[in-house]
C-alpha cells in the first residue's frame, strides 16, 4: 500500500472515531459503539485508536471489550502510560488487586509527572496494604519430558511469525500415534459424536472428551508448558513484559476454571475429502496458541491445518501445515503475530482442518476448558 493510501486510511479511521465520540455525547450509545468498533477494525495497528475504542466501550459498559483493546494497545505500544492506567482501574474494579497495583506502578514509571496515576497508586496502596507483602511462591513440578526437551523455541517462534503455525515433527512415533488412536476409538470418556458437513457425503465428525485420559492430559500439560514459553517469546517481540502461567494448572486457576467445566480437547475424524471449519475463536481471553496432533492412519502427508487471514475488506491469505502421523502443529488460534510495514502487530485469523486424501484422526488440544 502506498504512503498516500496509508495516510488516507488513517484520516478515515480518525474521522470514524471522532464520529463515535460525537454520537456518545449525543447519548446515541449503540451508534457510538458501532462506530468505535469499525474504527478499531480498520486501525487495529494504532494504539491510540485501540485506547479510544476502550474508552467508548467502558462508557457503554462493554468491559471485556475495553480490556481487550487496552491490552492490545499496550502490546503494540509498551510505553503507553495512559493505557496502563486505564487497565489498572479496570482490574481494580474487577477485584484483581495485585494486577491493578502492578499496572499502576508501571504507569507511574512510564510517566512520573502523571498526577492521576500517582493518586491512584496511593489509593491502591492504602486500600490494599497486604499487597506489599510478597505472595507465596507455588512450585509445581515441570511437565516437560524428553518428548519436547530438545525443541528449539527460537525456530518455532520464527515459524509462528512467518506462517502463524509451526510443525513439531515426530512428536509421537507412528506406533505411539496408532496406539493412541486405538485407545481413543474405544474410550468411554468421549461424549456423543457430532457430524459436521453434507450428510449425503461422509461428513467430518468430532467427539468431545468428558474427562481426559491420563495420556492425553499429560500431552496437554507438556505442550502447554512449551506453548507458554513460545507465547512469552512472541510477547517480547511485541515489546510486552507480560508472562503466561508456566503450567496448565496455573492457567486454569488464572481463568477460574478449576471446576465445573468440560475439557476443551476433542477427537476429530476426517473422512477422505473431509474438512472441518473454518472456525474463528472470539474469546479474547483464550490462550493464544493451540495444538493439533496427527494420529493417522496411513503413512502419507496431509493438509492438517489451514490458517487464514480474517481482516475484513482485505485480500485473504492462507498458510497450510502439512503433517505425517505423529506430527503436531502449534498454531495461533485467534490472532497471529505478523510483520506489517516493517513493524510487528496482531492479525486476526480463522482456521480449518483438512481436506485429507484418506481417513485421518486428529487430536485437537486447546488449553481452555468449555
Q: What's the layout of helices and strands?
A:
Blueprint: H1 3-25, H2 29-42, H3 47-59, H4 63-76, H5 81-93, H6 97-110, H7 115-127, H8 153-163, E1 165-168, H9 174-185, E2 190-196, E3 204-209, H10 214-237, H11 248-255, E4 266-270, E5 276-279, E6 289-294, E7 302-309, E8 318-323, E9 328-332, E10 335-340, E11 343-353, E12 360-365
Antiparallel strand pairs: 1-9, 2-3, 3-4, 4-12, 5-11, 6-9, 6-12, 7-8, 7-11, 10-11
Helix pairs in contact: 1-2, 1-3, 2-3, 3-4, 4-5, 5-6, 6-7, 8-10
- By DSSP (H or I, 4+ residues per run), the number of helices equals 11
CATH topology description of the largest domain: Jelly Rolls
Report the C-alpha radius of gyration, rounded: 22 Å
Strand order across the largest sheet: 1-9-6-12-4-3-2
- CATH C-level name of the largest domain: Mainly Beta
Order of helices and strands: HHHHHHHHEHEEHHEEEEEEEEE
What level of helicity do the residues show?
40-55%
Q: Tell me the span between the first and last alpha carbons.
A: 41 Å
Provide mean pLDDT, rounded: 83
Low-confidence parts, pLDDT < 50 over ≥5 residues?
1-6
Second CATH tier, the architecture of the largest domain: Sandwich
Strand proportion, as a percent range, falls in: 15-25%
Number of individual domains: 2
Question: What is the 3D form?
Answer: globular
Question: What's the total number of strands?
Answer: 12
Biggest β-sheet strands, sense, barrel:
7 strands, antiparallel
Q: Give the helix/strand class.
A: alpha+beta
